């Protein structure tokens, strides 16, 4: 059997649209296309449409992992649930929605203000909160969690499936302990929100992301949550980089892990 699985970048950007059309990136969202099943990690605004553009059926997702509640990571949750309510034929089985502390109240609140349009029809919606260190699992996969450094409860996720390990940082500043959590993983999807030299405790600047990536020693790293300035910084820094297999994420990029 072929080992590994597919990763699709729905959105490689963050929370602010670029001024130049060519630099616009959708907010954070990733799909893991497993031998059996489709897992989603974040679904920022616009990413439901990105799924369709990538040829992936939203109803095929069995589990959605939110790293945190910021709209650039969760903005299309309402759109997804709305779609599933009216999709034909109706989805069956269950959709599990995972996230850090606060996720259950967040989903309940969304459903309340938009009632009844997000209520499941034909399937079960199960919302499960994860604390740092908790593990989620499904057929042929498991997901481990690490507390991110961010101004709200946020998690980094490590997916192990088909003999491969994928780590998605979500939003985090340095200091979360990714060096251990992501050590030797097959693909590290790492945020690099700010241009080199800028500092924000809840995010990585390009230079910090590069240092962190080196310390994690992944087989490959994909920098994401980019803006035009951080992408520019990374391109300059990576010209001098030796030894690290790194690239910048782009919307609708497909990789095999
Ligand atoms: Zn973000
Ligand atoms: Zn955030």
Tell me what the structure shows:
The chain is α/β, with parallel strands linked by helices and 257 residues long. The protein has one domain (6-256): Metallo-beta-lactamase, Chain A. It is built from seven helices and 14 strands. It has helices spanning 47-53, 71-74, 77-86, 103-113, 178-181, 206-216, 228-239; strands spanning 6-11, 29-34, 37-43, 61-65, 94-99, 124-129, 135-138, 141-147, 155-161, 164-168, 187-191, 220-224, 246-248, 254-256. It has a seven-stranded mixed sheet. The protein has a seven-stranded mixed sheet with strand order 7-8-9-10-11-12-13, with helices on one face. Strand 2 (29-34) and strand 3 (37-43) form a beta hairpin. The longest helix has 12 residues, at 228-239. The chain is globular, with a radius of gyration of 17 Å. 47% of the residues are buried. The mean pLDDT is 97. The protein binds zinc ion (2 copies). One zinc ion (ZN) binds at residues 68, 70, 150, 171.
Architecture blueprint of SSEs:
Elements lengths: L5 E6 L17 E6 L2 E7 L3 H7 L7 E5 L5 H4 L2 H10 L7 E6 L3 H11 L10 E6 L5 E4 L2 E7 L7 E7 L2 E5 L9 H4 L5 E5 L14 H11 L3 E5 L3 H12 L6 E3 L5 E3 L1
Parallel strand pairs: 3-4, 4-5, 5-6, 10-11, 11-12, 12-13
Antiparallel strand pairs: 1-2, 1-14, 2-3, 7-8, 8-9, 9-10
The site of one zinc ion (ZN) has 4 residues, from loops.
Explain briefly what this protein structure is.
With 257 residues, this protein is an alpha/beta fold. It has helices at 47-53, 71-74, 77-86, 103-113, 178-181, 206-216, 228-239; strands at 6-11, 29-34, 37-43, 61-65, 94-99, 124-129, 135-138, 141-147, 155-161, 164-168, 187-191, 220-224, 246-248, 254-256. Helices cover 23% and strands 29% of the residues.
């Amino acid at each position: 059997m072929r080992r590994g699985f597919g990763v699709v970048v729905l959105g490689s950007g963050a929370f602010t649209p670029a001024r130049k059309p060519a630099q616009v990136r959708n907010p954070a969202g990733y799909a893991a296309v497993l031998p059996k099943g489709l897992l989603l990690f974040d679904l920022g605004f616009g990413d439901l449409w990105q799924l369709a553009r990538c040829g992936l059926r939203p109803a095929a997702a069995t589990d959605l992992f939110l790293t945190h509640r910021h709209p650039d990571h969760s903005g299309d949750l309402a759109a997804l649930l709305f779609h599933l309510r009216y999709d034909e034929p109706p989805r069956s089985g269950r959709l599990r929605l995972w996230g850090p502390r606060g996720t259950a109240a967040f989903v309940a609140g969304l459903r309340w203000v938009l009632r009844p349009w997000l209520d499941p029809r034909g399937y079960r919606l199960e919302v499960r909160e994860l604390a740092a260190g908790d593990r989620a699992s499904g057929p042929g996969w498991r997901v481990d969690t690490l507390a991110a450094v961010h101004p709200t409860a946020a998690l980094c996720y490590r997916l192990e499936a088909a003999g491969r390990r994928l780590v998605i940082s979500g939003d985090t500043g340095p200091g979360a302990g990714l060096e251990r959590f992501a050590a030797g993983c097959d693909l590290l999807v790492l945020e690099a929100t700010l241009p080199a030299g800028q500092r924000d405790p809840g995010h990585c600047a390009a230079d910090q992301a590069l240092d962190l990536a080196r310390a994690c020693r992944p087989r490959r790293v994909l920098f994401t949550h980019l803006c035009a300035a951080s992408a520019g910084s990374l391109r300059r820094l990576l010209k001098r980089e030796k030894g690290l297999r790194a690239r910048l994420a782009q919307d609708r990029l497909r990789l095999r892990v």
